[in-house]
Amino acid sequence: xxxxxxxxxxxxxxxxxxxxxxxxxxxxxxxxxxxxxxxxxxxxxxxxxxxxxxxxxx
Length: 58
Hints:
The protein is α+β, with helices and mostly antiparallel strands. 16% of the residues lie in helices and 17% in strands. It has a domain at 20-57. Strands 1-2 form a two-stranded antiparallel ribbon. The protein is flat. The two termini are 23 Å apart.
């Protein structure tokens, strides 16, 4: 599918942002977004642009 990206991370690395749990960023048609990560922001949903950028970079 064109809207799906599969990324593979090495499992032999202890320190990697993606190893702290699932990260999700949802972007909606009206330009708004909502993100959540098990390892960041205490697992709560965030919509602040700075916090969303952190999740996107992870």
